[in-house]
Structures are given as structure tokens and as C-alpha cells.
Amino acid sequence: MNGTGRRTRAAALIAASAVVILAAGILYLQAGPSLTSPFTIALAPNAAPSHRSSPVVLERPCETNEMKLTGILQDCASVTAGMSCPKGSFNQVRVVRLHGATDDFILYIEVNGGYLGPNTYPLQPWPDGTLGNPDGMAKVAVRQWTGGALWQSTAGSLNIDETEEAGWVDSRLERKSASSGEDVVLNIAGRWSCS
Q: Which of the two ends of the chain, N or C, has the fewest CB atoms closer than 10 A to its terminal CB?
């Protein structure tokens, strides 16, 4: 086989692998932490937060490079790594890991179908409750590393700066309590970055 044929096959294999990884990521986001999969098993051992079972009061203001979490959780979290930061369009979710004093978190950012370049996008309740749907809405979600609780943006704003790899988020997020059915509120404010 000549070099061109090998390159074509290699490119096709890489593209197919990317599709499988993206599909698995979307399935994980939709199913949440209860999904018994290699993702859950692979992620959990790496977490090293100092977990507390009840919310704590912030004893200091957050630094300018930290996200401030308030509501059911009180924490300052720094961006530790961009876990998935595809270049270009925001049709694919950006996934950023945050490290707080009480726990680690995963921040999801998406503007699927409505991305118009660097700008500030309004956040509102999601019509379908999932990431990965091209509904034209800006979405922010936060998953607590320990326990896997997932909050979805219901109000606020998402800023994407000119690099398209960073910006600001100021959002109210909610999830339903499993025990009472009441809304559990988490607010997040601060700079996010994929680098």
C-alpha cells in the first residue's frame, strides 16, 4: 500500500475514534454519575478533594483567578485543567475541572447552535435539560466531583472572550432534590479558562 492510502486510513480511524469519544462523553453527561462505566471508575480515584458533608462558610474572599460558588455550597475553586476544549465552534461542550477547598467540580460550557463568536450570552432554563442539543441556547452546568450532583444554569450570563478559550460566567444553577423535589440552588461567578 502506498503512503497516501495509509494516511487516508489513519485519518479515517482518527475521525471514527473522535466520534466514539464524543458520543461516550454525551452519554456520560446525560446519564450522570449513576452510569456504571469505565468513565466513572476512571474519574473517581483521581479526585483528591477534602470533602465535607455539610456546606461551610467562606472564611475568605475568592482570589481573582478563582470561581466563587455560593448557595448550597460555599467554596472558591480554581481552574485546574481543561478536560475537553475543542477548538472553534461552541457546538461541542467545553469541559473544565475546578479544584475547591471542599471538593472538586466539573464545569460544562456550551452554546450549541447559537454561537456568534466572542460575546456575552444570556443563560436561562434549558428547554430539554441536556447538553449536546443544538437548541441555540448558551448553557453552563456544574457537576460536583464527589457524589456527582449536577446543577444546570437557569439565569445569568456567559462571556466568551476574543481568544474563545476563556471568559466569565455569572450564573444561578439549579437541580431538583432527590428527597424533597425542591430546587437546590448553586451560584457560580468568576473567570473560566480552557488553558
A: N
